[in-house]
Amino acid sequence: MTAVTTDSQPFLAAVEAALAARPGGEPAAVASLRQRAAARFAALGLPTTRDEEWRFTNLAPVATTPYRRARGGVPAGAAAWLAPYRLPGAIELVFAGGRLVPELSHSDELPAGLEIGGLGALLASGADGLLAELGRVTDRDQHAFANLNTALFTDGAFVRTAPGTVVERPIHLLFLGHAEEGEPTAAFPRVLLLAGERSELRLVERYVGRDGERYLTCPVTELIAAPEAVVDHYKVQREGDAAHHLAVFTVETGRGANVTSHSISLGGALVRHDVRGLLAGEGSEATLNGLYMVRGRQFVDTHMRIDHAQPRCDSHELYKGILNESARAVFNGRIHVHPHAQKTDAKQTNRNLLLSKEALVHTNPQLEIFADDVKCTHGSTVGQLDEEAIFYLRSRGIGEVAARSLLTYAFASDIVERIRVEPVRQELRDFLLDWIPHGEVVRDAT
């Protein structure tokens, strides 16, 4: 391979080393997938601000950090530290450095029709049948970090439901990022979720880490919903304040399938979410909402593309952001309606609340419509708290501090209250009250 830029060389070297050390028993289809991804990453290199899709996102902090690949060691005291993030009653897999930690996981007493486990064991078993879907949605993607993950991942989670299976308990995938032996560490976990025809499940994908530790989490999640499947998905990103999180999330819906996903981004120093939605089955529906809350010098970038490839499909996206101090955010959303995707109903909205004069957001929702019988809308807003609303609350005996806190809380809780897993919803309520300025005022009032 030939390095495209000097900054890409450490990652290219890691890819070359990983391919050279690839286990001989890995399925041929996966080995071929890795080779293609490695070649694409070698051709692309790391994105720069000269690339249109990355023009507001400076990856210099990632490129100049001397990462080493995570070995998957469990840090001392991990069980106690992770305790607040566990999900009682859930089917739970825990990962450290991108690798499954069986002794911290709870995946016994599985309902009939549900398969769940570590991708590493699946690769070792050579189970070509299940792995046939791995990378199918993201293969040929020109996204550098999707290809980097495909070339380098060694473990992660797979979830598959048989047709007609209804999984009552939530599934929880808990990923711990950390610096191993005090050195910056990079992990590349993978999630493959295959929802069988007419099946139903809820899945919480959570990323956490300790403040002050330098590490990179570069995950890829592929969610494939068969005809009439119903999937309720949540991603909660609470990485440490010195961490980098560069993620790709892909969704494909079959005929009549219904997928709802909420992405909550709270931690990390530099965060990027790339969301790809393909409505590939007639009459399917995808709801993709999100909330990002950043302060200090945090940076979060959300890039989304939704492809309506079949008729009578609905997509709805509402992303909200709250920025304080010198934080930065980017939202770039695109809805692409293919020529034969008649009767499309699509709506995309991005709303941002700036709590300081130094905060800055770049927002750019877009529509690309090549069909003539559609209903599509998009819009974005950027602003501060409504002074008329503050005046209204103050005229009813509420102090100015309380009024501002209440309005900020209400802005974010619009997304939080849509979460149907009660422990996760309550965790985010508590985080929100601790995060917003003078949140104790709202806590006392509520």
Question: What does the model show?
Answer:
With 446 residues, the protein is of the alpha/beta class. It folds into 2 domains: 6-281, no CATH class; 386-446, no CATH class. The protein is built from 11 helices and 22 strands. Strands 1, 4, 5, 7, 8, 10, 11, 13, 15, 17, 19 and 21 form a 12-stranded mixed sheet that branches. It is globular and about 70 Å long.
Summed up:
The chain is an alpha/beta fold and 446 residues long. The strands form two sheets. Strands 1, 4, 5, 7, 8, 10, 11, 13, 15, 17, 19 and 21 form a twelve-stranded mixed β-sheet that branches. The protein has a ten-stranded mixed β-sheet with strand order 3-2-6-9-12-14-16-18-20-22, with helices on one face. The chain has eleven helices and 22 strands.
Keywords for this structure?
446 residues, alpha/beta, 12-stranded mixed beta sheet, 37% strand, 2 domains
Q: Separation of termini? A: 59 Å
Low-confidence stretches: 1-6
Whole-number total of structural domains: 2
- How many helices? The count is 11
Overall SS class: alpha/beta
How much strand content do the residues show?
Answer: 35-45%
> Quick one: how many beta strands?
22
Helix content: 10-25%
Biggest sheet character: 12 strands, mixed
Radius of gyration: 21 Å
Mean pLDDT: 92
Please tell me what the overall shape is.
globular
